[in-house]
């Protein structure tokens, strides 16, 4: 298949942008990237897909999201964090069934594909959601998923007794760690290697030192990557202080740091933490919308990048973002650090594009196969239709994508060489069936949790 007449943002080592470019896909790999004229002459018998008026970018990579939480979109808006988590989100998630987890995975994946995300890192999928269903949803949809199975042995969070998990979510070592190992044996590298199974560790306070050390030891010997929320809120920082640690000195003490770990949020860091991240080549997932909406603070992304830390982007979950559209996340990532620093040159559009593509691929250990449009890499790419008044005129293709486009502008998505979105429509899933099932099951979860009246919002409904 030959995709022609597009502007191609390659994110290759030279960061080339090709005008009137083409991509040749053979099986699931990129066989050539060049000018349209050159490739059509070399491959006159190839089936052609004309993408004139589109910008092609590498498939977007979300390094942090919660698939289960899409059923809870808008169910916990404008609350402070303890109420948000302990009185809403954990209560709702503690009432999930396996069927709810499958429906949540499908609506999350459908939204991600439609908005240009071709690979995602699920951070912490609980046993009660049904991990098999999550894997089936990835397999059926055509997306790539790095799937973190929860690891925990305590229902606490940080050091505050008010931060207690709903009993329906509490797991022990056998259910969580050993369950994750079972899922790794069953699903890792399934679906033509589109599925990778990770450890999704709970935040410190929810995992004993002994279990962290056991998990990190297995991670190193078996090559199972780890993702974990860390230093998200001030309470996390205070908790580490009670242990006579900074966030990264604690993580280092239990073996969490290293190139196979993605730490999420990372808002409350000091200079020594940043230095330790750089030294250990630990990755960071930046979630600016979630951090802003929950008033957690702003991650020190410019300092992390200046220190050589690899930073990717994530949307987090729908209750603290309300969308899984990574293109919208890209815009905020390019703006928020300018406002904080009073420096408009920080985190330019090109850096944001790297964060959402090649940096994300590096964080997931997949940069040899995805994250840029180069010969020999997997054919994962997104075509954004620029033929609209809100996108014209433009002068820098990268700036236009980062600051102007949203998921609604995605025209085509290719993953592993297969077209999964065509003319803005899913080809592997029935969108209407997916959202209707998600709507039904989301309301059933809320009703089961007895929170119907509380999730309605502040103004009267009649």
From TrEMBL:
InterPro entries xrefs: Amidohydro-rel, Metal-dep_hydrolase_composite, Metal_Hydrolase, MTA/SAH_deaminase
Keyword Ribonucleoprotein: no
CDD domains: ATZ_TRZ_like (cd01298)
The keyword Metal-binding appears for this protein: yes
Ranges of residues in domain Amidohydrolase-related: 55-420
Pfam families assigned: Amidohydro_1
UniProt xrefs under PANTHER family: AMIDOHYDROLASE-RELATED DOMAIN-CONTAINING PROTEIN (PTHR43794:SF11), AMINOHYDROLASE SSNA-RELATED (PTHR43794)
Entry protein name: Amidohydrolase-related domain-containing protein
Lineage of the species this protein comes from: Eukaryota, Fungi, Dikarya, Ascomycota, Pezizomycotina
């Amino acid at each position: 298949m030959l995709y022609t007449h597009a502007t191609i943002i390659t994110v290759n080592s030279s960061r080339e942008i090709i005008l009137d470019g083409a991509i040749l896909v053979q099986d699931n790999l990129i066989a050539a990237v060049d000018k349209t004229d050159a490739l059509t002459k070399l491959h006159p018998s190839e089936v052609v897909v004309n993408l004139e008026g589109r910008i092609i970018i590498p498939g977007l990579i979300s390094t942090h999201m919660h698939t289960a939480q899409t059923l809870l979109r808008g169910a916990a808006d404008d609350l402070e964090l303890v109420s948000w988590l302990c009185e809403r989100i954990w209560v709702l998630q503690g009432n999930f069934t396996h069927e709810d987890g499958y429906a949540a995975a499908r609506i999350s994946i459908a939204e991600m594909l439609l908005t240009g995300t071709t690979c995602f890192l699920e951070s912490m999928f609980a046993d009660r959601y049904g991990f098999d269903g999550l894997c089936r949803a990835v397999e059926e949809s055509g997306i790539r998923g790095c799937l973190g199975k929860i690891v925990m042995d305590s229902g606490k969070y940080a050091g505050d007794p008010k931060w207690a998990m709903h009993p329906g979510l509490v797991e022990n070592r056998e259910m969580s760690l050993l369950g994750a190992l079972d899922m790794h044996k069953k699903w890792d590298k399934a679906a033509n290697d589109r599925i990778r199974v990770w450890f999704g560790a709970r935040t410190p306070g929810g995992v004993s030192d002994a279990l962290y050390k056991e998990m990190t030891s297995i991670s190193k010997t078996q090559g199972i990557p780890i993702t974990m929320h860390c230093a998200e809120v001030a309470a996390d920082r205070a908790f580490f202080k009670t242990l006579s640690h900074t966030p990264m000195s604690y993580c280092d003490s239990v073996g969490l740091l290293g190139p196979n770990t993605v730490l999420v949020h990372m808002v409350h860091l000091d200079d020594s933490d940043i230095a330790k991240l750089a030294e250990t080549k630990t990755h960071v997932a930046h979630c600016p919308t979630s951090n802003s909406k929950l008033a957690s603070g702003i991650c020190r992304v410019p300092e992390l990048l200046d220190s050589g830390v690899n930073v990717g982007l994530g949307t987090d979950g729908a209750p603290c973002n309300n969308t899984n559209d990574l293109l919208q996340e890209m815009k905020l990532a390019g703006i928020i650090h300018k406002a904080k620093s009073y420096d408009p040159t920080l985190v330019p559009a090109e850096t944001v594009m790297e964060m959402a593509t090649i940096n994300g691929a590096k964080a997931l250990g997949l940069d040899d196969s995805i994250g840029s449009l180069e010969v020999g890499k997997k054919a994962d790419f997104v075509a954004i239709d620029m033929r609209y008044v809100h996108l014209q005129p433009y002068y820098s293709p990268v700036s236009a994508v980062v600051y102007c486009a949203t998921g609604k502008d995605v025209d085509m998505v290719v993953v592993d060489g297969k077209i999964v979105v065509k003319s803005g429509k899913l080809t592997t899933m029935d969108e209407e069936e997916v959202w209707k099932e998600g709507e039904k099951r989301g309301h059933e979860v809320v009703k089961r949790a007895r929170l119907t009246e509380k999730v309605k919002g502040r103004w009267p409904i009649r």
